[in-house]
């Protein structure tokens, strides 16, 4: 997830400029947070499971991204599994208070690590229970994960700078997610194993849930939108945040194609969903 809003980017950019002008030996100036940032913090203040209705549950605020559970007639489908085994396990236990139906499918919306690193504990739990789990993603996603490995060291450093990981609590207004968010202490990057891929659009059924996977390049070129027609529910991955689209990351990730992104938003909007 790219939760830094445009105002945060401006805030960080202006802070860096001020530090540079004063010399690097001085402590950075603490700037009062923009009101929009305070509003964003208020919106995502507490981690919670949101019961969207019709068997859809969204775990929001626990981690960098959302983890979503769809309860079908014979099992459950999970969309994205957060950034770490630690957080995925925690949220999965919360989901298990709602239903004990077998895990039958995981959709990974794109290659960013905060959307699939939690696959491992869920798949291990399924294996221990004798459940077979389909893992769905766009045909390019696993390749992009592998390619990402090459630049991992420099991206980790730059991400720490981008997300304010080295700032004190006082200086870090909301960790870009919410005031209580703390990065996982057990972050281990695991490769992504996918069992079902698609190219442009495909329909799958698992656990009694029929859903479409739609290729919607935007925040990343492999972005998948999940559409469940029977529930009128759409899951746009990171193509839509509660913030200005992160068209270019200050950590130096590849340029995001704006034309692709807005065309994908049109595709998403034209589905006519009641829930997102
Ligand atoms: Zn993302």
Structural key phrases:
single chain; 276 residues; alpha/beta; Metallo-beta-lactamase, Chain A; 7-stranded mixed beta sheet; 4-stranded antiparallel beta sheet; 7 helices; 11 strands; 29% helix; disordered N terminus; binds zinc ion; linear primary-alkylsulfatase activity; Metallo-beta-lactamase domain-containing protein; Bds1/SdsA1_MBL-fold; RibonucZ/Hydroxyglut_hydro; Metallo-B-lactamas
Brief summary of the model shown:
This protein has 276 residues and is α/β, with parallel strands linked by helices. Helices cover 29% and strands 20% of the residues.
Describe the structure.
The chain has 276 residues and is an alpha/beta fold. The chain has a single domain (6-269), classed as 4-Layer Sandwich (Metallo-beta-lactamase, Chain A). Helix content is 29%, strand content 20%. The protein has seven helices and eleven strands. The chain has helices at residues 6-22, 35-43, 85-96, 119-129, 141-148, 152-162, 258-269, and strands at residues 48-53, 56-60, 67-71, 76-79, 103-107, 134-138, 196-198, 201-206, 209-215, 224-228, 233-235. A seven-stranded mixed β-sheet has the order 1-2-3-4-5-6-7, covered by helices on one side. A four-stranded antiparallel β-sheet has the order 8-9-10-11, with no helix packed on it. Helix 3 (85-96) crosses helix 4 (119-129). The site of zinc ion has 7 residues, from loops.
């Amino acid at each position: 997830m790219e939760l830094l809003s445009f105002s945060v980017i401006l805030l960080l950019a202006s802070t860096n400029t001020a530090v540079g002008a004063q010399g690097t030996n001085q402590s950075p100036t603490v700037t009062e947070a923009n009101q929009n940032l305070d509003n964003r913090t208020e919106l995502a203040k507490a981690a919670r499971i949101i019961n969207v209705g019709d068997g859809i549950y969204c775990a929001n605020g626990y981690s960098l991204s959302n983890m979503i559970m769809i309860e079908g007639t014979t099992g459950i489908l999970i969309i994205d599994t957060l950034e770490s085994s630690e957080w995925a396990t925690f949220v999965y236990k919360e989901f298990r208070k709602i239903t004990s139906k077998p895990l039958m499918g995981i959709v990974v919306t794109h290659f960013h690590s905060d959307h699939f690193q939690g696959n491992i504990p869920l798949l291990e739990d399924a294996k221990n229970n004798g459940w077979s789990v389909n893992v769905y993603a766009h045909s390019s996603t696993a390749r992009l994960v592998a390619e990402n490995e090459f630049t991992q060291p420099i991206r980790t450093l730059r991400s720490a700078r981008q997300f304010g990981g080295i700032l004190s609590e006082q200086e870090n207004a909301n960790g870009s997610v919410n005031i209580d968010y703390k990065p996982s202490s057990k972050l281990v990057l695991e490769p992504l194993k996918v069992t079902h891929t698609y190219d442009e659009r495909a329909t799958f059924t698992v656990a009694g849930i029929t859903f479409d996977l739609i290729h919607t390049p935007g925040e990343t070129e492999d972005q998948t939108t999940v559409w469940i027609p029977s529930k009128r529910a759409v899951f746009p991955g990171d193509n839509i945040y509660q913030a200005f689209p992160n068209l270019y990351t200050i950590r130096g990730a590849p340029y995001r194609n704006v034309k692709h992104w807005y065309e994908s938003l049109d595709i998403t909007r034209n589905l006519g969903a009641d829930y997102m």
